[in-house]
Each structure stands twice: as structure tokens, then as C-alpha cells.
Amino acid sequence: MKSRRTIVLAAALLALLALLWVGSGVVADGPEGQGQVPLAVTVPHRISYQGQANDNLGNPLNGNFDMVFELWDAAAGGNKVSSASQPSVPVSKGLFSTWFSVNPYACFNGQALWLQVKVAGQAVSPRQELLAVPYAWCALGGLGFPFEGTDDTLGPTFSILHTAATGSAIRGLATNTGNVTNYGGYFEAYGTTGRAVAGAVSGANARGVWGYATAGGTGVYGESTTGIGGFFTSQNDHLDLTLGGAVGRINTDPANQNSVLILSSNHDVVVRLDNDGGEESVFRIKNSGSTDVLTVDETGTLTVKVLEITGGADLSEEFEIRGADAISRPCPGMVVTIDAQNPGDLMVSDKAYDRRVAGVISGAGGVKPGMLMGQKGSKADGSNPVALTGRVYCWADASNGEIAPGDLLTTSDAPGHAMKVTDYARAQGAILGKAMTGLSEGKGLVLVLVALQ
Known about the structure:
There is one protein chain. The chain folds into three domains: about 1-225, no CATH class; about 255-305; about 315-450, Head decoration protein D (Virus Head Decoration Protein, Chain: A), CATH 2.40.300.10. Strands 16, 17, 18, 19, 20, 21, 22, 23, 24, 25 and 26 form an eleven-stranded mixed sheet that branches. Strands 5, 6, 8, 9 and 10 form a five-stranded antiparallel sheet that branches. The radius of gyration is 42 Å and the shape is rod-shaped. The termini are far apart. With about 450 residues, the protein is mostly beta strands. The chain is built from three helices and 26 strands.
């Protein structure tokens, strides 16, 4: 009877088909001052395997044999991590060379691995431990490849990774999302000018560092004990930090009910948004001496030492106004008086020396209200801004006398028009203000300093 043969593998060699920086010889210009750096070639997710197969008597095998390559997490027993088949591998005088595929992101995540080979259905013992070379795939997957630089350099040339248009130079994958210390990739820099991660792009839509998170995760996370958690700078003004999307939002820690957001510029002006309900205000702007220059409390009350308004020239309140008749409908520049029939409302003036005079509808001549007041949903509300003080253009009628700068103005019989005061006794209590420009004849706009008397 012919004896059963046992297959033995002798002096098997395990290696990657291609190393990360070997094989192409292609180079590209690196960052300024760094010269040329190698381009990363596309590394196949395969491991080559060469060996010698003999039977139990030491005779070399010849022929084609089916082989299975398994990765285990222990030298004996344990769990099978992956398995790949290679049918009909040619073996000549005991020598063979083949390969098998793996998923590097699932397999080479920092765990120790052993290779189990089966030839023609027979498992070869012992398993072979995988050493450093296969773990070079971590440079493609962001699984812990060590990058180290010194002083103010970017480190060795192999620490600068280049990818194709849609590739990822470093890709980190972490499981166990509940553990914040479980990192897909971890980088550490030393010295005052070191860079743990440096991203450089050349395309208009490329991303130097890109973070993506789902299920409430954090795309990019920065933390510092005594320094800066994150620093952004741009050579283009106003583009240091851009918030994309339909809504750009900067939040403090939502889990901290007393969190504070502080925006500062060289400590000259500091903006502080305080989420603590016990504070006097939720929004503060301070000067370099840490003194409040503006605050807004939780009721919306604004407190400021000096308020400078540059968009208008009068102080107005909003009123509902009715016309004196069907023709004289309220419009900017018209003089208005108190409406005795409708408390809290006004009407277009229609008689001379009316002591009910209240002001001028603001907005004529391109001069807008500087401050507009009112209380929505109350009688102190309306559709028309009426200047109670300040400078405003007013319709005037010169038929009662030529108007010159400095003349006192009062109401006239022309609806909505002012006129020059000529009867001072009658004008007492009916003065609208003083003319700041003149009107020699007819009707027209006159700039008026409103000062009711």
C-alpha cells in the first residue's frame, strides 16, 4: 500500500507585492523648501507568498495544487480574521510563487496576526506570524503609520503623502465609538513649530484636512491643555474660517449649560456669548481693559455708552395716519397732526396754525429715520415713521411768504404742507420747527430741524 503523503512548507517567504515608496521612481514637487518627494503608487491589496512544498519524506512536490490562505489572531486556536483561496497553484520541484488578497483596513488595525496555509486541503503547521511589512498598508488606511519630523521641517520625505484626484492621503478608521480615546489615527508633534498633521492642496475644491462624521460624531476635533485647540489662517483676507452650508453655526459644548463662546482680536475687542442664565447678559463686547462697551441681556435690552447712527438723521415713532381727504393721502414729507377722533393716531394737517401739530412723515428727499421706535401689538405702533425731532425734509408752501433758513414753520391750509410763521401770537404751541433751507415761491421740499413748540 502506498503511504499517505504529508505536505510540508519549507522556508516560506512573505512579502508585499509593492512597498509604498518603491517601484515607480516617480517624483513630484513638494512644499516650498522641501524639494521633490516621491508619489505614492497605487498599492494592490495583495500579499505575495513564495515557498517550497515537500512531502513528509522530503520529496519536492510537482503539479497544480489548491491553496487557502487564512489570517488568525493567535498562533494556535483563536479567531479567523480572513480567508482567501488560490486554485491550481503551479508547483515545480517543490517551488511555487503565488499571492492572496486581503482587506487591509479590516485586518491590519494594530492586532497581531498569524498566517495559516492549506495545501490540497491540508493545514500546514505551525502558523507563521506576520511581521512589519504587511502593516505598511496602514499608511494608506490611516491605521497608525508613524510620521516623525524634527525642528521646523516636515519630517522625512516619506511623511508627505500624495494621492490621486479622489484619493485619501491618510484615512483613519476607529471602532468602539463610545470610547473617545480610540483613534483612527494619532499624530504627535514636538517643539514650538512642530506640526502633527499638515495638509496642503493645489486644486480649487481640494481639502487639506477633511473630517466627516455621522450619528452625532465629530468630523475634526481639536483639544489643548494650555495652548490653542485649533488654529486657522488664510493668505486671503476674510477666509480664515468659512462655515459652509445653508446655516453656518458656531456652538459651544451643548453638554455644558454654563458654556461660554469668546471671540477676540489681539485682546482689543472681545465678544463674549454667555449661556449661563444667571449672568446679567448673554452677549458682551469688552475693550482691552476688560470693561463692557456693549451688552445685550436676555430680554433684548441693549446697553452701550455711545451709540453712533450713520444711516439716518431723525428720531421717529411709528403711527397710523389717515388723510385729510381722499386726495391728501399720507406720504413722506407731509406734516401731520394729532387725530382727535382716533386716540394714538395721526392725520395729515389741513389748517393753518394747528396746535395739534405732531411732526413730519420721515423719508422724503432721501433722508431716512436714524432711529425708529414703536411697540408692536399696541397703540404705540403703526405703518408710518413720523419724525418727532431731528432733520427731515418737509413739504412747504411759500404762498404765505418766502421761506428762508432760520424761519419758524407751522401748519398751513394746504394739506400736509408747512408755511412760514408770520403771526407769532397765533403760532404759540403750533410751531413745527425751523427751516434749514429756503423756498422762494410755490410749493416744494424744505429741510426742517423739527422742534415742536
